[in-house]
Structures are given as structure tokens and as C-alpha cells.
Amino acid sequence: MVEIFQDIRKIYMFSKPCEELLPHVEFYSQSVLDHSAQDIKHEFSAVKMFPSWTPTFYINLGTPYYIDLKHTRHYVKGDEDVLILRNEDVTRHKLPADNIFTVKFNPGSLEAILGLNQVSVMDKIIPLHHILPWQLLQKIKQPICFEERVEIIQSYLLAAYHQLNNHDHYIKMVNDCIGEYQAAGMQLNTSKVAEKLFITSKTINRYFNRVIGIAPKNYFSILRGRIALTSFMKDKENFIPMDYGYYDLSHFHKDIVNFTGQRLTKHL
């Protein structure tokens, strides 16, 4: 199974964060356990995920599994929980008995909520008990429903966010840059985004590398590729590449090959 090209969402249930955490948490999710979904799960022995620079908690409620990161296979035990940045391609090898509770953050948001700069976790699989209290993880692992798990982790993240009282100028500026880029239909280059926010290209580069760990040009390219490819797979006939800052369909195809390493025709 390949992320975006195939519908990974149908084997998970999702919940959006509360309004206060909406700028920082993309979603909470958990594996679907309903018997009706078991046949679908059997179709997917692995899930390949492309770079997104979104720190993600994987809290294991089920069986052991393997994760491939930077050409190395890692064994994740049944009682082991991990943090992955997803700055590289990541493949998680799945089993039908998988039961994973996930918290996916926006870029830079680990620092905004927990004070952890995501650059320090690049190319690593971090044991989650190094980040979250052991007692919290055990509470989430109790035999409770998805909604209760969301409430537990969200209460903790909100409290941490309030305690940190984060007004980091770097994080705010990076978020403003990303917002400006998306608001302009992903048509602007780095210099134009910087110009809109009255900063220099040198400054925006320094901020992005400090907060996310990647240059803005590269991050914007990944962001545009992910959004455009998702839109294309949902409605190929009505897809207009110019809406996403591409010159034409050929330009879009070339960018997707660079981003995913795969041709669109392989998944049509």
C-alpha cells in the first residue's frame, strides 16, 4: 500500500483536535477493529509513507511490527511506542491484528507544545516514553474507546501547551510563512513569501532550518506535491495543475516522480 496513491484512511478512524490545538495537531487516529474491516486490512501488508516533516506518535495497542527507515528495518515490540519525524520515506509493515493509536503533529508543533525541537529527531525512531510520561502511556493503553484516548492525550497536550506558554518567534514566523504559501494557492516562491512577511530570503531559510529542519523551498515543494497528488487521486478528470502552482500537467507529473519516485501511470 502506498500513501496518497491508495486510500490508507479506510483502515483507520480519525478525530480532529480541539480548536486551540488545531494549528498544531493534524489529527488523532486509531486502527479500525471492526470485523468488517479485516478483509481490507489483509490487502495491506505494508504502508509506504512519503516525507511530510510531521512528527508522529505511534502508540501500540496491539501486536509487534516492523518499520523501515533509511534502508534499515526496525522491530517495534508489542508494548513499545515510538516517535517518528517522517523526514524520509517510511514503510510500516502491517498485520491484520494491528491496533495503533496515532497523534500526527504539524511541522514545528512538537516544540510549540512540548518544547522539543524536531530537528533533534531527524532520521531516528525515538522511544515515546522518552517524550511522554509512562503513566500517561499506560492510561492510553487501557481497554477504552477511541474517543476516550483522544480526550486523555488532548488534555495532556493542552496542559503542556498552556504550561509552556510558547510565544516562540521562530515557530510563529514559520507557521505564518506556510499559511501565506497555501493562501496564495502555492504559487509563490520562497522570496515572494518572505517579501509578503517583510523578511529576507536569508531569514526565512534560517527560520525553516531552525524549526522544521529543511529549507523552505524544499518544504514548500513537498507540501505542494502532497496536496496536489491527493487532489489528483480524488478527482483526476477535474484536476487542474495550475491551481497548485504547476505550469501544466507535464510539470505536475515530473514533480510527483521526484517526490514519490513513482510514475502516476503505475497507480491509475
From TrEMBL:
GO molecular function: DNA-binding transcription factor activity; sequence-specific DNA binding
InterPro entries: HTH_AraC
UniProt-recorded name of the protein: AraC-like DNA-binding protein
Positions of transmembrane segments: none
Domain HTH araC/xylS-type: 168-268
Keyword DNA-binding annotated: yes
Keyword Phosphoprotein applies: no
Keyword line: DNA-binding
Gene3D superfamilies hit by this protein: Homeodomain-like
